[in-house]
Specification:
14% strand
Length: 251
């Protein structure tokens, strides 16, 4: 299936590893041109180099108030346009409600929430009809995840922002979508499994609760992201899609 991504221009944040990098790989494979970010320039350059000549790396921290406008400007200056953005942010510090500090909450809010809001606003100001804004969120939007209190607090609020934005931007022909990964086989998830003390046992227990009885792969998530960001999904907006092997309870 041709997704219609050839020569379209996207920003993908958090693209040096994990779900952001997997999504960027799938977009590049479909012929998209990319601005990819990481927290330091060297890693961003390495990620861009792995994606081919139509990718440029930018060292940027989502919590930096100036990052959003700089990324949009880079896309326009380098490729002449912007068609979409996928906002992927590393997960906040784990911990129970009584354990997380004010400093951890503040840092997560600046990066996970406010940073994503700034990126979406900056992209919306540049996008035209057919543009798309995507958020990589979490299964915690629908069901709290034990031991991830900060994520449980911030991700649902960001999903609410995304839904509101989809209503605001719909009349301009700009779509807004959210992807809600659960157990995907990334470094982050392996680290979380290891917090229990026996990562293998934790993984086995988690897999037993997933109807497909396995974790997803970053490539599977990336292909889902590429489809939702593409013109092939042009009538999908305001959607929050669980990418979880069927683990979510309810519809």
């Amino acid at each position: 299936m041709d997704l219609g991504l050839k020569d379209r221009v996207y920003i993908v944040t958090g693209a040096t590893r994990g779900l952001g990098h997997a999504s960027a790989r799938e977009l590049a494979a479909e012929g998209a041109k990319l601005v990819v970010t990481g927290r330091d320039q060297e890693r961003a350059d390495a990620a861009a180099a792995s994606l081919g000549p139509d990718a440029v790396g930018v060292g940027a921290d989502n919590s930096d108030p100036g990052a959003a406008s700089r990324l949009v400007a880079t896309a326009v200056e380098r490729f002449g346009r912007l068609d979409g953005i996928l906002i992927s942010v590393g997960g906040p510090a784990p911990g129970a409600a009584a354990d997380n500090t004010d400093e951890q909450w503040t840092a997560a809010f600046e990066s996970v929430f406010l940073g994503a809001v700034r990126l979406a606003r900056a992209a919306a100001a540049e996008l035209g009809e057919g543009g798309v804004i995507g958020f990589v969120l979490s299964g915690s939007v629908h069901e709290p995840i034990p031991g991830l209190t900060i994520s449980n607090g911030l991700r649902p609020g960001l999903a609410g922002f995304a839904k509101s934005l989809s209503v605001d931007l719909g009349p301009r022909g700009i779509r807004v979508i959210g992807l809600l990964p659960s157990r995907i086989d990334t470094d982050r998830v392996r680290e979380l499994d290891g917090l229990s003390g026996d990562a293998a046992a934790a993984r086995a227990a988690n897999e037993s609760r997933i109807p497909l009885r396995r974790y997803g792969t970053p490539e599977e998530f990336g292909r889902t992201a590429a489809f939702f960001l593409s013109p092939a999904a042009s009538y999908l907006t305001g959607v929050m899609l669980p990418v979880d092997g069927g683990a979510r309870h309810g519809f």
